[in-house]
Amino acid sequence: MFLKCKDLLGLEHLDEKDLQAILDSVKPFKSLFTRSVKKAPTLIGKTVVILFYEPSTRTRTSFEIAAKRLSADVVNIPVNISSVVKGESLIDTGKTLEAMKADYIIVRHSLAGAPNILARNLNASIINAGDGFHEHPTQGLLDLYTIYEKKKKLEGLKVLLVGDILHSRVAKSNIWALTKMGAQVAVSGPPTLIPTGIEDLGVKVYYNLDEAVKQADVVNILRIQLERQKENLFPSVHEYVELYQLTKEKLKSAKRDVLIMHPGPMNRGIEISSDVADSSNAVINEQVTNGIAVRMAVLYLLNPKRKNESSN
Hints:
- The chain has 312 residues and is α/β, with parallel strands linked by helices.
- The chain contains eleven helices and nine strands.
- Strands 7-6-5-8-9 form a five-stranded parallel sheet, sandwiched between helices.
- The radius of gyration is 20 Å and the shape is globular.
C-alpha cells in the first residue's frame, strides 16, 4: 500500500486508513536499527533534497538519516548561502531543484502553506517539515507511533497537550491525528496560549494542569517559545513555571503508567523539570529514534517508483 497523495503536507486531510498504513509501515523500518548494516535499497537512484528556511537539528538530521538508510542520494541546501538570499522565489527554487531531478523536496518554512505552494507547482513529492504555525506532520506521526507502540492502541486513550497550543504546529498535527484514530485529546495552558474555538475540534480545555494530569494516559509537553514572552502572552516565566511546569509533584495524582513526551528541544526547568524528563515514564529519546523510522515509512509510502509498479 502507498499513500494516495504524492505529498505529505499535513495530517488534517489524511484519513484513518492512511494514518494506519503509516503506523503499520514503521515497525519493519525500525527493525533495521538492530542490524549491523542499517540500510535498505528502497530509494536507490532517488534524490532527496532537504530545503530548510528555518534552523533545525532534530528534524533535519532525522530526515537525512532516514533517506540515507533507504539508500537515497541526499542534498542539503543551506538557504542562508543559496540563491534565496539573492531574491529567488520559493517556486523558482523548487523548479530549479526539480530540473536537477529531485524526486523529493523536504521543506521547512516560516510561512504557513509554503509546502502547499511547492506541491501545486512541482511534480516532485513535497514533504512538510514544519510550516509556520500550521502543521508539523512527521512530528505528529512520530508522536502517534510512540503512543501506539507503548500503549498498543490509540482508540479511547486520553492524551493531554500542555503549553503553547496557539503557536504550536506540533499540537495541531497531534490533534488531527489523534482524534482521527479515536483518542480523546485535551489541552492545558495559559488562556492566552489556547486558540479560540479549539473545542470545535473535539478537544477539551483545562486551565488547571493538576486537574488535567489526573485524567491523562499520555502527557505531551510542548516547548515554551520564550520569544512569546516579548508579546506578553503570559505574565512571567516564573508564573508559567509555577502553574504549568510538569513536575514530580504534579504527577503524584497521575496514572502510574502515564507516558511523558516532549517533541524537543526541551527548556528544562521551564515547561518540564529534569527529574520528570529523565524519569522511567518519559519516552523522549524514543520519540527521536521513532522519528527516523517514521520518516523512512513516509518516504517509502510516497515512493513514485512503487506507485508506478503498482499501477502496471
